[in-house]
Amino acid sequence: MNRKDFDELVNQTIRETAQLLVEKGAEYAGGADRLGNFKRGAQHIGITPLQVALIYTSKHFDAISTYIRNDAQGMEQILSEPIEGRLNDLINYAILIKALIKEHTQP
Fold first, then answer.
1. Phi/psi-derived region of residue 66, left when phi > 0, alpha when psi is between -120 and 50, beta in every other case
2. Within its chain, how far is the Cα of 45 from the centroid?
3. Which of 12, 17, 31, 73 yields a CA-CA distance of 20 to 30 A from 43?
4. 93 close to 49: Cβ distance less than 8 angstroms
5. Domain range for residue 57?
6. CA–CA gap between residue 86 and residue 89 (Å, rounded)
7. What is the pLDDT of residues 43-52, one digit of tens each?
8. How far is it, in rounded angstroms, from Cα 3 to Cα 56?
9. Rounded Cα–Cα distance for residues 101 and 103 (Å)
10. Please, are residues 16 and 94 in contact by the beta-carbon 8 Å criterion?
11. Is the pLDDT of residue 107 over 90?
């Protein structure tokens, strides 16, 4: 991939992931706390918000891993959503985990 195409991919990914954070944030978080869904999930099952975020993240990582394994074996890919969407979700979960860590470590 040449530099121009790569730079466009980076910029497009940033636009898409930012839009997803806005759209899905309102749907999932509810209220004023953008990290509220992780905190509520943690309370429901007795784990930390970071652990909840890891569980949510692992779902996307697992789907990406399956895609890569299937691709390596030349298998037909039957996807419920495009792999690019899973990758964007994984990027966003990294940002959300970063936010949880920042919130947890701030005095």
1. alpha
2. 21
3. 17
4. no
5. 3-105
6. 5
7. 999 999 999 9
8. 33
9. 5
10. no
11. no
Please name the helix (run of DSSP H) or strand (run of DSSP E) that holds residue 11, with its range, or none. Answer: helix 3-28
CB 39 within 8 A of CB 29: no
Cβ atoms 22, 7 nearer than 8 A: no
pLDDT grade for 22, boundaries at 50, 70 and 90 = confident
List, in sequence order, the alpha helices (H) in the chain: 3-28, 36-45, 49-72, 83-105
Q: How far apart are CA 92 and CA 100, in angstroms?
A: 12
Domains in the chain, number: 1
Cβ neighbors of 67 (< 8 A, separation 6 or more) are 77, 79, 83, 86
| Tens of pLDDT, residues 29-72 | 777 899 999 999 999 999 999 999 999 999 999 999 999 999 99
Where are the strands (E) in 55-101, listed by range? Answer: none
Task: Provide the token pair at 13.
Answer: 């990914």
- With H, G, I as helix, E, B as strand and everything else as coil, classify residue 77: coil
